[in-house]
Specification:
homodimer, 679 residues, alpha+beta, Immunoglobulin-like, L-arginine/glycine Amidinotransferase, Chain A, 3 domains, 10-stranded mixed beta sheet, 5-stranded mixed beta sheet, 33% strand
Chain lengths: 679, 679
């Protein structure tokens, strides 16, 4: 062996200094008593105190090693070679690395010779070295492919120059037989069709055909991550489970110069108690002796962030429109069908056997999606409202590449504010320089000052806040009898300014319009004229009703309060907001007065690209034209939008909802990728 | 009134533009139908659409106001005065502010006159204005005094240039009668002696003697903050409770030109589910009409951070030393008393009626403190260990200005690793440029790769991590039979380098010392010579025991693993670490082999300034001097530290502990204030 030993000259040390500054330095013992075999992992540094193991009376030492081994002595001595004896100092340390993985076990060697004051050999410590290359890899650069040993693979950074891999909650259902979300099904293995929903992870190794006796590779996660992910290993024809909540570590075979593929699935969305980050570790364990636990000599780690659930604002392209068919809504359905189909989208009807008379398609669910560089799919958030439409999201929507998630608070904690007409999302905005490229979620709550009041349940609020990419805004919606933000606001696309307008119901705009009518001699024009059995009322009568005026002043002040919050939180100017002429009235409910739309609430519309489906207001007519419709057509026409008025009076408005409440739209995801956000 | 109206010229508008760009803009309605009274809060801006309320046919408008009122019109018109009619545009907006608080209700006025195309008056809208100044104040600049309306009072920022007020958990016990921590006692009111433990908060108001009819000031917090704080109001001779978990909002009297003082106490330390930040809001509510909830027209908010519990490293000045007196530890007590008193500190003895034979003073509790700009005091963290010493922290330590906190996991989740010999803290360090001016907490756990293993209970770990100012480091201590980090590491002060040295037990250093003894002809020197009934063993016998050598190689590799972690996490060089000659042996415990000190474990010492109390090792003697003691004296002497060897052999070492396990030191807080950390 002696002939293969080489001297290492000073210039070479210095040139290679960087290779020794690895963060992964492992303290290693030198032992003169017995031959030592050391397993070395490429990219790490072994550090041995020369003095600690030196025999008594040692004054000098020398070092020899094989070609593939490199070392430096710290502190550096004024010598070009350690082949001949050099003085041993108290703090002399040997730093060892290897250039390449070994072909055979113990095929490299480093020896330290100790000498007394006369340079007579006292003893030697010999390290037999086996080098292996080990890398646990993920798609840390987010290009859809698993690169090799990305230096940033174990940290997560937001933004276009960020890094860190991404995980989907495997919440769709590959199979419709005994359907359930995949992450709740058959946890012991996965079928190959499910692999695309999971994130690949690769263990790459290089070195001798097998590890030295007793060494083990172990994949492991912490307890809390065990509740959030599952790891499967790629086998011949299926994917057995290797890590989950009840099995946090698993020995993994070492295959020499080969790789092993894993697939990782999320089982839990980010939430109050989970920031979305999980870590998977691979440790190389060194045996000590019988009955003594192995110690890890190397740990590689990767990080994943579980993809958040993302909502889609009105400005995104519609894909499907959903409505319910009921005994009494034929006219509404006909209007919707005509609007949706002429707009070029698909109308999907939920029939009565499924909806059981519950027509509030908006309230039972919210469409969203999850996305990663390798895959993405729509995910429905099922509301805790749970009325007769309750089964629709699970029974009809959940399926292959269509995910499902819900939060189930206690029954007593659920109120009307938990219906998802009270959950909306703004288009992308920039607020005081801060970008929200996916917009901001908007929910309605009670005032914090109200001693009692209805609220969106904390469990759903926590979920929404925890997604982080669409930071929510809480509005005051408890002033409304039904209590949903979609009763007073909506967003429509616009080609100018910020790309959209905020529409707000405005009693003041309503009164202004009615006063103008009166002033122009149309005070006798009637509302509700074309509705059978509905009493009519004239413009003059409305304007003469001082109580109604007070109720609308109150409603306006509640909307104005929300207007101020929206301007501040979305960075809007008054020019970004359009006031729609809508009146409210107050109704008593358990000693509290709350607001309802006086005539069909035009802001509660469906937005399909440039086509708007608006509740037909049945307002006062001037020359046979409804003045409210005319005003809407004029306001929306300025934005290039087309209004279709849909008669929802009997089947929705009288039941305290309108077009938006009775429909739902699944939209295309954002082009913008959520991981490119700057947080 | 007309005579007091003034015109406002353009230059004045521009000069005062800033006053109108307040973040707090409130949309306000103009009403031509009836006289409006508006309550205005100084520092905010009222914003009214001129067009929204304009009568039909309006083409021009003009504005007049009293001296104390200021306004601008947006968009700005090419005019120097709005006293004469100017054209009304669709987007004309009026921005109104007041310069000073009112003396009487409605003592100011602004009127908007509307004109038709012929400049004939159509109607006017009149706002009667009452200005009030309202400010909820705290010590946001952290100087110990409540300043007025700090612009940063509602956000919290770390660092010397940071801001945001600080709250203490009121966890001491003012009264020893039926003693319990104050925040758990008598929640309806507080005595004046308790006020110093609470953070002052002041409501300052200025304006007319009373608010207009129906307006209210309400102090309110959210549900989750209600579980973390209590707010008391200063009354004549006591402090009634106003806000807590069961009362989240409270009407507060408005006193005109006066102030009301509040005191806020924390009831919960930062923890896994609580980041330490709480908000208190003050809202001014506007009445609408009977049966309709008031709407807030102004909200002021302040933020507090609950002070974290902070540990004190060995480098801080000792105040008191605690030990237990037992039937059999007279010799130990005598040694400790002599050391502590000669070092100039107080020794406090916990007698047997209290300790009930449990001598492990280190393990039952950890001393720490909480601090704020106005006050601070020591706080004991009671370990979930709960053996016979269990009552000591509560019964003896808790008292006036001595706080108490504990975490009580389920009995079955508690292991030996929950004793606080397994909870230490480093001196201040800087790691890769990141400063830890309060050091880092150090705990011992099982390896994540171990399928079974003992751990510090998650509940205590969560608490420690949540304090955030001493970010914890987890070491591997499960290799030890007792499982405490203080069995292999300690910190001592040093005048050079980083101000301290890390001491590590080192079997290699032990073997090296013994080999040198053998080599120098002292192989027959005996360990344990002066201990009655203890068998002796010679240096030669130790060196000949190959099994013992293997066990120590293992122990060394476990310590080396921890050494690598400590170097990385504390930013240490090898020169910052001193290896102490300590041997271990393995004992079997339920099929697992774990380590115990072979002779008294010298690293398990008490550090009192420059005086160290070290377990007397009873090592081999050379010329009558113990070689182990001599080595310690030499190593510590280099740092200017004095060693006192304390005989703990029979009463501690044989029971698997040493000096450090059997004592505890309360130390002075850091001079560095935790809120000055850069996070």
């Amino acid at each position: 062996m002696q002939s293969t030993m080489q001297s290492t000259s000073l210039p070479k040390f210095l040139r290679q200094k960087d290779e020794f500054s690895s963060q992964y330095t492992r303290t290693c013992r030198l032992d003169v008593e017995k031959r030592q075999s050391v397993l070395y992992v490429l990219g790490t540094t072994l550090k041995a105190s020369l003095n600690r193991s030196a025999p008594p009376k040692t004054k000098y030492f020398s070092v020899k090693c094989t070609d593939n081994v490199q070392y430096i002595i710290s502190p550096l001595l004024q010598t070009t070679s350690y082949l001949s004896p050099v003085p041993l100092m108290d703090n002399s340390v040997l730093l060892i690395t290897m250039k390449e993985a070994s072909v055979h076990e113990n095929d490299n060697k480093l020896s330290v010779w100790y000498y007394d004051a006369d340079k007579t050999v006292l003893d030697k410590a010999v390290l037999h070295l086996t080098g292996v290359d080990i890398s646990l890899d993920v798609d840390a650069d987010r290009d859809g492919f698993v690169e090799k040993n990305n230096p940033n693979k174990n940290t997560w950074k937001w933004g276009p120059h960020g890094h860190g891999a991404i995980l989907l909650v495997n919440c769709d259902a590959e199979s419709l037989y005994k359907k359930r979300p995949d992450h709740e099904r058959n946890i012991k293995r996965r079928m190959s069709s499910d692999v695309k929903d999971m994130s690949p992870m690769v263990l790459r190794t290089k070195g001798p055909a097998k590890l030295p006796e007793g060494y083990k590779l172990v994949l492991h996660i912490c307890q809390s991550d065990g509740e959030k992910i599952r790891v499967f290993i790629s086998s011949v024809d299926h994917y057995p489970l290797v890590l989950y909540s009840a099995s946090l570590s698993k020995e993994i075979p070492y295959l020499g110069n080969d790789e092993i593929k894993f697939y990782v699935e999320g089982v839990k969305f980010p939430d109050k108690d989970f920031d979305g980050l999980i870590h998977i570790n691979l440790s190389l364990l060194e045996p000590i002796s019988e009955g003594i636990p192995e110690t890890p000599i190397f740990t590689d780690a990767v990080v994943f962030r579980v993809a958040p659930w993302i909502m889609t604002p009105n400005t995104l392209r519609p894909v499907e429109v959903f409505v319910c068919s009921t005994k009494d809504n034929y006219k509404f359905l006909k209007g919707m069908k005509s609007l949706v189909e002429s707009s070029g989208y698909k109308l999907k009807i939920c029939h009565e056997y499924m909806n059981r008379g519950d027509r509030w398609m908006q309230d039972e669910l919210e469409f969203g999606y999850i996305d990663s560089p390798h895959h993405g799919f729509p995910v429905v958030l099922d509301s805790p409202r749970d009325q007769q439409l309750d089964d629709f999201p699970y029974d009809v929507l959940l399926g292959p590449d269509f995910g499902y998630v819900t939060r189930e608070p206690k029954r007593k904690d659920v109120s009307s504010l938990d219906s998802f007409g009270n959950l909306e999302v703004s288009p992308p905005v920039t607020v005081n320089g801060k970008h929200y490229p996916l917009g901001r979620i908007i929910i309605g709550v009670a005032f914090p000052t109200a001693s009692k009041g209805r609220n969106m349940t904390k469990m759903v609020q926590d979920f929404l806040w925890a997604q982080t990419v669409q930071e929510p805004i809480a509005l005051f919606s408890d002033w409304l009898e039904v209590g949903h933000v979609d009763e007073f606001m909506s967003f429509v696309p616009a080609k100018d300014r910020k790309g959209f307008r905020l529409l707000l119901a405005s009693p003041d705009a309503g009164y202004k319009l009615f006063k103008n009518l009166q002033n122009d001699g149309h005070g006798d024009a009637k509302l509700f004229e074309d509705i059978p059995d509905e009493p009519t009322i004239t413009v003059n009568e409305i304007l003469a009703d001082k109580i109604l005026q007070d109720e609308n002043n109150y409603s306006q002040s509640c909307i104005d309060w929300n207007r101020d919050v929206l301007k501040r939180e979305l960075g809007l100017d008054d020019e970004d907001i359009i006031d729609l002429p809508v009146l409210f009235k107050l109704v008593e409910d358990g000693g509290q007065y709350r607001a309802l739309a006086y005539y069909p609430d035009m802001v509660n519309m469906i937005v399909l690209g440039e086509n708007l489906g608006i509740p037909k207001p049945f307002g006062p007519k001037v020359n046979g034209v409804c003045a409210l419709e005319q005003e809407m057509v004029s306001l929306m026409g300025n934005l290039g939008l087309t209004c279709t008025f849909i008669d929802d009076f009997t089947s929705y408005h009288k039941l305290m909802g309108e077009v938006h409440c009775g429909s739902n739209v699944r939209r295309s995801p954002f082009d913008f990728k959520w991981w490119n956000m700057e947080m």
